[in-house]
């Protein structure tokens, strides 16, 4: 299975066989090309989850016995590690959630709901994942019930699959309170230059960055990006489903309402109502997803050891190869993304390419590919634009550090032979 690409991390990173061995589910004949949906799990993550259930299951910090206090200590350590991992200087900026969807809804309900006034605006991309679109529509409905009318202003996507920063800058005005943006787009695979976007915005406009796809694929530093909020999906970063992270910059802490008031929430009950006792607990509540957070801790250690720069370089090489090999196939049409050139040069990709093939619907193509053992995602990929046909169905191929050149070559050869059969 070992093949190397000159200039790619395939030849310079960790040994391919060592990487593959880390992910036990990859030992089958099926070829997994759906890492944007969820990544495979490395052995340390699997062992961490199993150990929690098998050896010392307890509720974290709720008992005075060692099993419980050790878990509380470990969660504190993982919070600190997560802060470092995303570039935050303060662990109190790190909130554990049930996923990126919950984290984005927390921004809408805990910051925007109390904060926005009649006539305020949020800028968003209608072609982003529904989790970064619907919470803002839900917010607008909730605010309308209390007589506040806010505007949701859509902005464009570039042919390279990134947020159109010029369009955002042109649409930003004194009433723009928040711009929400995908870092790495989950269908198009374009990586938006968020630091440049931040520089184009007034300092008082807040910036929310959906790092669900970038978190495990490229180094992310929330301070370099200039994010006020950033969300991460642990299951797309070698962790387990039901765990996510909300980074919430200190500058907004005093403007937040609690998210899930209940056991262990950072609030005090006063005659006037709930009063904050501080972050990050203000946005947490109830028994946390303990095995999920422990798994996240192990996942971050694996990502650190593999090095996200190496992961990014590996996926850049694979993306180029997918595009180069699909491009000559008759009937292939690429969605926006790394297949589209910027002034003559191919824009870099980070492991996501989406396309259609003339003569066969994407769902059907997905079935045929699955019959040949290629596991890809088909459909609209949770994009819900206002005009239902605007997004359209496509096939999305997505890779990670464990994906090999040979797998990608077999996949593109399979698409080529299907294309030949149907023309
Ligand atoms: C860009 C993006 N945002 C948000 C989400 C939702 O993440 P979660 O499953 O953690 O709620 C996804 C998941 O597919 C995604 O790709």
Plain-language structure description:
This protein is of the alpha/beta class. It has two domains: 66-301, Aspartate Aminotransferase, domain 2 (3-Layer(aba) Sandwich), CATH 3.40.640; 309-422, Aspartate Aminotransferase, domain 1, CATH 3.90.1150.10. The protein has helices at residues 9-12, 16-22, 43-54, 66-86, 100-115, 134-145, 165-171, 194-200, 222-225, 290-306, 308-326, 362-371, 405-422, and strands at 31-32, 94-97, 121-124, 151-154, 176-182, 206-210, 229-233, 244-248, 267-270, 273-276, 332-334, 341-342, 345-346, 352-357, 374-375, 377-379, 394-398. It starts with 8 loop residues before the first helix and ends with a helix. The relative contact order is 0.16. The structure holds pyridoxal-5'-phosphate. Pyridoxal-5'-phosphate (PLP) is lined by residues 99-101, 129, 131-132, 182, 186, 210, 212-213, 233, 244, 382.
- Classify the helix fraction into a percent range: 25-40%
Give the percentage of residues in beta strands: 15-25%
Provide mean pLDDT, rounded.
93
CATH architecture of the largest domain, by name, is 3-Layer(aba) Sandwich
Instruction: Give unreliable regions as ranges.
Output: 1-12
CATH class placement of the largest domain:
Alpha Beta
Fold topology:
Blueprint: H1 9-12, H2 16-22, E1 31-32, H3 43-54, H4 66-86, E2 94-97, H5 100-115, E3 121-124, H6 134-145, E4 151-154, H7 165-171, E5 176-182, H8 194-200, E6 206-210, H9 222-225, E7 229-233, E8 244-248, E9 267-270, E10 273-276, H10 290-306, H11 308-326, E11 332-334, E12 341-342, E13 345-346, E14 352-357, H12 362-371, E15 374-375, E16 377-379, E17 394-398, H13 405-422
The structure holds pyridoxal-5'-phosphate.
Pyridoxal-5'-phosphate binds next to helix 5.
């Amino acid at each position: 299975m070992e093949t190397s690409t000159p200039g790619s991390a395939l030849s310079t990173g960790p040994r391919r066989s060592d990487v593959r061995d880390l992910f036990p589910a990859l030992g089958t004949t099926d070829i997994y090309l759906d890492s944007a949906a969820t990544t495979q799990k490395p052995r340390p993550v699997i062992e961490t989850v199993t150990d929690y259930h098998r050896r010392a299951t307890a509720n974290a910090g709720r008992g005075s016995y060692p099993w419980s206090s050790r878990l509380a200590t470990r969660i504190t350590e993982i919070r600190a590690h997560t802060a470092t991992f995303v570039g935050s200087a303060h662990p109190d900026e790190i909130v554990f959630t049930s996923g990126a969807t919950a984290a984005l809804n927390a921004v809408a309900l805990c910051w925007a709901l109390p904060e926005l006034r009649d006539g305020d605006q949020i800028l968003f991309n209608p072609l982003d994942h529904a989790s970064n679109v619907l919470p803002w529509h839900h917010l607008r409905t909730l605010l309308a019930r209390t007589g506040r009318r806010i505007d949701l202003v859509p902005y464009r996507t570039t042919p390279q699959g990134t947020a159109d920063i010029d369009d955002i800058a042109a649409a930003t005005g004194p009433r723009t309170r928040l711009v929400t943006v995908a870092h790495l787009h989950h269908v198009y695979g374009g990586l938006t230059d968020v630091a440049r976007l931040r520089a184009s915005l007034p300092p008082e406009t807040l910036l929310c960055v959906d790092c669900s796809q970038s978190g495990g694929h490229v180094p992310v530093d929330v301070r370099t990006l200039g994010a006020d909020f950033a969300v991460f999906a642990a299951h797309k970063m070698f962790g387990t489903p039901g765990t996510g992270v909300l980074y919430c910059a200190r500058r907004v802490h005093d403007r937040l309402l609690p998210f899930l008031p209940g056991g262990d929430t950072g609030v005090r009950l006063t005659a006037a109502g709930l009063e904050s006792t501080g972050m990050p607990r203000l946005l947490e509540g109830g028994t946390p997803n303990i095995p999920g957070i422990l798994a996240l801790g192990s996942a971050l250690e694996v990502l650190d050891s593999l090095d996200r720069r190496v992961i990014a370089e590996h996926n850049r090489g694979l993306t180029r190869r997918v595009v180069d090999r699909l491009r000559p196939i008759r009937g292939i049409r690429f969605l926006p993304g790394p297949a589209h050139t910027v002034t003559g040069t191919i824009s870099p990709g980070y492991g996501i390419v989406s396309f259609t093939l003339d003569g066969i619907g994407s769902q059907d193509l997905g079935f045929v590919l699955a019959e040949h053992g290629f596991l890809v995602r088909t459909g609209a990929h949770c994009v819900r634009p206002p005009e239902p046909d605007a997004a359209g169905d496509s096939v999305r191929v997505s890779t990670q550090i464990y994906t090999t050149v040979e797998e990608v070559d077999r996949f593109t050869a399979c698409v080529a032979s299907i294309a030949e059969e149907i023309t």
